[in-house]
Amino acid sequence: MVNATRPPKSYLARTAGLMVLALAVGSGGTWLALRHRAQTQQAQAAKDADPIVFYRNPMNPAITSPTFMKDEMGMDYIPVHESDLKGQEGPAVEGLAAVKIDSERQQLIGLTTAPVAEGPVGGDIRTTARVAVDETRIRHIHVKVDGYVEKLFVDFVGMPVAKDQPLFTYFSPDFVSAQEDYLLALKTQKSLAGGSLAGSGADLLDAARRRMALWDVPAGAIAELERTGEVRKSLTLYSPITGVVTAKTAVEGMRLGPADTPFEITDLATVWGVADVYEPEIQRVKVGMPADLTLGTFPGKAFHGRVAFIDPQVDPKSRTVKVRVDLANPRGELKPEMYGEMVLRSQARRGLVIPVDAVLDSGARKIVFVALGDGRFAPREVQVGDNLGETVEVRSGLKQGESVVTRANFLVDSESRLRAALAQFAGKPSPAGAAGPAPAAKP
Predict the structure, then answer these.
(1) Quick one: pLDDT at residue 133?
(2) Residue 355, Cα to own-chain centre: how many angstroms?
(3) Are 128 and 359 in contact (CB under 8 A)?
(4) pTM to 2 decimals?
(5) What is the distance between the alpha carbons of residues 403 and 373, in angstroms, rounded to a whole number?
(6) At the N or C end, where does the chain have fewer CB atoms within 10 A?
(7) H or E segment at 38?
């Protein structure tokens, strides 16, 4: 027998499910209401802590309004909070102001910071260099009288020569006449010996000897002429130094005169390493400082020398200064126009360094943005020293342990300039409401 007063089990199950659902919906609604209330309270607290001072035109910060309104294009005026008008923290920088950027916006613009740290400043200077001829070791060979090349003993450029090695024989009618005059003076001097004109004969002989010496006739050739009494047809010219022939114009049968240069001989026992040093680093280079040259031709080998000369002029195209290093080259391994890397050895010192990307250089001043914490960043004018490649020395304006903006600092700079412009117009709202549309209630 069925009890008519008791509902079926299916009905009870559905009723219980609906009650549980109602309780869940009621609890969720209560939680959402509480959350909305908390967010509203937080927003109100933030608004009370940082109230709106005035509103500015979105296209022109100089146009402001004490109340919310829209411009001619229907764009909302932007609220300017009290925090936007706070003064500069630390030394004031004209035209810039401190800014506040929340963490979400920092991630959006890719803002990063780096600490101001103590590190080595100065040290070695690395740059490119080339091997050049030592210009003080170049000799030009000339003849002193007109004549003709009879025979060449050195007949191609690049040929090594030793000191006093014969270069070529040279026929000159003037040289033949000078020998004859010398023999005549010698004969006259002998004939006048012991007489009252002996002194005149000696003077005549000395003049003839000096004439040939001024033509670079070797003393041995004059002695041979005096001993044999035979006039030589040609004169042999010898190399004054040990080196290599770096230029040659003489050929056999060629007519030469005092203005011609038949040979150029260069001593390569010492060469120059000419390094290009950029302007910011030239103040660290001193005459006498050690330097090492490395070449791809000789891996693992360094050629040592010292700075001998610093060019007083800057190359207007490369903005570099030529620095000359004297390098010993006894084996002839260093050849002119070789290209390599020069390391100028300098003593390092300790100083404050920051990434070079943190510095905004306007030409008139150098600015960094210092992280103050809680999303606040303040501009700071600094004086920099040595440029170390990826980092730069800071001589004043920062302290060790502070952090500076290294990425997105151009965006921070733009925001800082805007805040400074807003602060300039703070308390001086323009009559934009009268000139433009009537203020509208903020939605």
Answers:
(1) 96
(2) 16
(3) no
(4) 0.59
(5) 9
(6) N
(7) helix 9-49
Q: Which tokens hold the place of 81?
A: 């909070």
CATH code of the domain occupying 86-121+350-424? 2.40.420.20
What's the order of all strands across the beta sheet hosting 263-266? 138-141, 263-266, 243-248, 160-161
Phi-psi region of 175 (alpha: psi -120 to 50; beta: other; left: phi over 0): alpha
Q: What is the pLDDT of residue 68?
A: 85
Beta 52-56 vs 112-115: how paired, if at all?
A: unpaired
Q: What is the mean pLDDT of each run of 10 residues along the chain (443 residues)?
A: 53 57 54 61 57 75 78 80 58 80 88 91 88 95 92 94 94 89 85 66 84 84 86 89 95 93 95 93 91 94 96 93 96 94 88 92 90 90 84 90 92 85 59 40 42
**Cβ–Cβ < 8 Å for 295, 338:** yes
Q: Which pLDDT score is estimated for 73?
A: 82
Note the pLDDT of residue 325: 97
At position 243, the amino acid (one-letter code) is G
CB 134 within 8 A of CB 357: no
For residue 215, CA distances in Å to 69, 153, 310, 401 come to 101, 20, 39, 77
**Cα–chain center distance at 230:** 68
A 10 A CB-CB count for 274 gives 17
Domain ranges of the chain: 86-121+350-424, 125-135+267-346, 143-260
State the CB neighbour count (10 A cutoff) for residue 265. 26
What pLDDT does residue 23 have? 53
Among 319, 321, 323, 292, smallest CA distance to 309 is for 323
Map residue 259 onto helix, strand or coil: coil
Architecture category of domain 125-135+267-346 in CATH? Beta Barrel (2.40)
Residue 214 near residue 144, CB atoms below 8 Å: yes
